Amino acid sequence: MSEIDIGLGKSGRRGFSLDQVALVPSRRTRDLDKVDLSWQIDAYQFDLPFLTSPMDSVISPQRAAEIDQLGGLGVLDLEGVWVRHEDPSLALAEVAGEHDVVAARSQLRKLYEAPVDHDLVTQRIKAIKAEGAYAAGSVSPKRVASMAETLLRAELDLLVISGTVISAEHVSDSDNTLNLKQFVRELETPVIVGGCASYQAALHLMRTGAAGVLVGVDGGRSATTGSVTGVGSPMATAIADVRAARMRHLDETGVYVQVIADGGLRSGGDIAKAIACGADAVVLGSALAATEGAPGGEWHWGRTAFHPTLPQGDVVQLPLAGTLAEVVSGPSDRADGRANIFGALRQAMATLGYETVKELQKAELVISGG
After folding, report:
1. CA neighbours closer than 13 Å in the CB half-sphere of residue 115
2. Could you report the per-residue pLDDT of 263-296, keeping only the tens digit for each?
3. How far is CA 193 from the centre of its chain?
4. 100, 205, 219, 337: which could form a disulfide with 264 (CB 3.0–4.6 Å)?
């Protein structure tokens, strides 16, 4: 891609967000019942191509089982309130009842002051499995080394190592360096790593042996990373770059790594365009936090919101979009795209004539704005 001069001494690539691209209809359409939305990562098959963002306002052990029943994958935050407190539900209910963001933020900050209880990690995973659901958990790069033994004992089905920006070698302390390639290859559990937003970073992560790579730099409703640090990348361009890295890695190794779009995806249209750019699946956060019975009530926040010295997120209030089932797969009487998300994806694929998610990656795109 050609670069654009920013000034006499600096140039940069042009990037595109998902809002700036549109899907072009093809010569063929198909019936809705001829569309297959299933997705597979490693040995695990899912009816729908999504996993949840590991946010306490989105997912709890109980919700993970509900997500599994709906066809997706619930990813529990293994540094969150559910592994810091025996029963945080009462405290979360009090937060949900707050109408003032300052008060809600203050209560939540106190909840996160408690240390992570490693015994609770294994208990939560067992509870999810007891419901017959796949158990997935997420940790930040800086925690992986200290939680390695616990993660092995927990017997996760899938592990997500996620951070605002992640690399193949994360240096946390002078004497405590996480080598992801070594860790991933020693762990029998399939690992998803990210986020990343560039070709080179994605290629390095794929070479660790990861089963999937998250694409995106903390771009959800509660994120403030762009304002705080200036780090970011438009999602459509980021996915396309990582798609290219996947193809090179496939040519070199014969191994196909799943590309998972993560950040700011709120509708079936967003998901359809992300897949057309090259994603195999997506991460949903605020879309699910805005459902009845969500752990955060009407409040939504991310893991980085309560960093002791440099928060990169905030506590935000979301309008209710419907029940969890209605938001995921309908039915819905809303016309704003916030409910029946995967019904909308199915409609998009039928309109474009594609049978599978993999085929949708071949869809033609046009630049529609910016």
Report:
1. 5
2. 889 899 999 999 999 999 999 999 999 999 999 9
3. 10
4. 219
Nearest to 182 by CA among 194, 168, 171: 168
Question: Which amino acid type is present at position 106?
Answer: S
Give the helix/strand (H/E) hosting 124.
helix 118-130
Chain centroid to CA 35: 24
pLDDT digits (tens, 9 = 90+) for 43-53: 999 999 999 99
Helix-helix angle 268-277:341-352, to 10 degrees: 50
Strand ranges, E, within 62-151: 75-77, 136-139
| Angstrom distance (rounded) from CA 260 to CA 68 | 18
Strand 365-367 vs strand 316-317: parallel, antiparallel, or unpaired?
unpaired
- 220, 285 Cβ separation under 8 angstroms: yes
Instruction: Tokens for 191, please give them.
Output: 């690992």
Q: Are 47 and 280 in contact (CB under 8 A)?
A: no
Count of all residues that appear for the chain in the document: 370
What the block records as the tokens of 320 is 């209710």
The DSSP symbol for 44 reads E
List, for residues 80-103, the tens digit of each pLDDT value: 999 999 999 999 999 888 888 888
pTM: 0.92
The domains of the chain are located at 16-367
- Which residue is associated with the tokens 């991460």? 283
Q: Which CATH superfamily is domain 16-367 in?
A: Aldolase class I (3.20.20.70)
